[in-house]
Amino acid sequence: MPQGQPSVVPDDGLTTRQRRNRPLTIVHTGVGKGKSTAAFGLALRAWNQGWPVGVFQFVKSAKWKVGEERALRVLGASGEGGTVAWHKMGEGWSWVQRSPETSEEAAREGWEQVKRDLAAQTYRLYVLDEFAYPMHWGWVDTAEVVAVLRDRPGTQHVVITGRNAPPALLDAADLVTDMSKVKHPMDTGQKGQRGIEW
Predict the structure, then answer these.
(1) Which tens digit of pLDDT belongs to each residue from 101-116?
(2) What is the DSSP letter of 121?
(3) Residues 41, 177: contact at Cβ < 8 Å?
(4) What does the radius of gyration of the chain's CA atoms come to, in whole angstroms?
(5) Which tens digits make up the pLDDT trace of 13-65?
(6) Sheet holding 157-161, edge to edge
């Protein structure tokens, strides 16, 4: 894509502006690091455009303090860009499931809230952090997610992160990035670091 020009222009009857401004479904998946970080980078861009941003964390513990949360909350409250709302629903890390029933209920409740916000067009960008997991585990129906995202009103963009994103979601998405791992310090026994992992 030299200079941001698409290599193909579909014969879909849309003007260049209509095609450029259509809402996107974006998925960051794979075993590598950086899926959520990339989604929060999109949130920063959306904030800069003055868009309201809704972040929904589906798996990470509500007690876990990530640097992006603090930064985006401060920016959202600054009155300079868009607003930022942050919702935490998960209980624990995806690989340390403490209470499956509670986590499943929280994930379903979170998805119901996302559906209400999409119907009301509450945000212009939705970050559904670690939302691939509830679909992968069968807690939230992937076919319903695909249908809701396909039929959402307005120009609301949605980015979903997490490993093992279901194939049906990948097929329906407009942009999919698979983060692959080449190496990671944890492979040699090093724990996560401040400023790198959080």
Answers:
(1) 668 888 999 999 999 9
(2) T
(3) no
(4) 17
(5) 888 888 888 999 999 999 999 999 999 999 999 999 999 999 999 976 566 66
(6) 84-90, 53-61, 125-129, 157-161, 25-29, 175-178
**What is the residue type of 6?**
P
CA distances, 160 to each of 3, 134, 189 (Å): 27, 11, 29
Q: Are 155 and 22 in contact (CB under 8 A)?
A: yes
Q: Scan for tokens 């894509």, then name that residue.
A: 1
Please list the alpha-helical segments (H only) found in the chain.
16-20, 35-48, 67-77, 100-120, 132-136, 142-150, 167-172
Closest CA to 73 of 11, 3, 96, 65: 65
Write the pLDDT tens digit of every residue in 161-193. Answer: 999 999 999 999 999 999 998 998 888 888 888
CB 125 within 8 A of CB 43: yes
Q: Three-state DSSP class for 84?
A: strand
